[in-house]
């Protein structure tokens, strides 16, 4: 017998009781496009119901990424692909400059385990007025995971 947490049971119950066209579409396996949102902050936080969440993309969904070395440009492209999937205005991401005026590095990619390319991750921040920060890393066989956390 499987045991489920109360949160999982509540979400299963809510989904099974829903009679919305969106839920019916999801059951049929058709992709859902969320309603257009002006601000990505609302979309990334599910209207402030979560502080962080992760999105998995196939490399074909990320402009300029061919599955090779993860670069800062590819990470930013993946973040923009998430905004597109969420149907929100890319400009509201307000991604920060890579290097600040004083020369301090703001965004960067690095191998977590030196010499292991699969351990490479990128940190990309939004400006102070933006929604939060992102961590991007590769997933096998041909994808990227974008994790978002909101600023506190």
Task: Give a quick set of tags describing it.
152 residues, alpha+beta, five-stranded antiparallel sheet, 4 helices, disordered N terminus
What does this structure look like?
It is a single chain. This protein is of the alpha+beta class and 152 residues long. 19% of the residues are buried. It has two domains: 1-32, no CATH class; 36-150, no CATH class. It has four helices and five strands. The protein has helices at residues 6-17, 21-27, 40-44, 72-86; strands at 52-58, 108-111, 120-125, 132-139, 143-150. Residues 1-33 have low confidence and may be disordered. A hairpin with an 8-residue loop joins β2 and β3. It is globular and about 40 Å long. A five-stranded antiparallel β-sheet has the order 1-5-4-3-2, with helices on one face.
Question: Can I get a quick summary?
Answer:
The protein is of the alpha+beta class and 152 residues long.
Global geometry: globular
* Overall number of structural domains: 2
Largest sheet: 5 strands, antiparallel
The strand order across the widest sheet is 1-5-4-3-2
The total strand number stands at 5
Number of helices: 4
**In sequence order, what are the helices and strands, one letter per element?**
HHHEHEEEE
Structural class: alpha+beta
Strand content is 15-25%
Helix content: 25-40%
Distance between the termini: 40 Å
Instruction: Indicate the mean pLDDT.
Output: 76
Give the low-confidence spans: 1-33
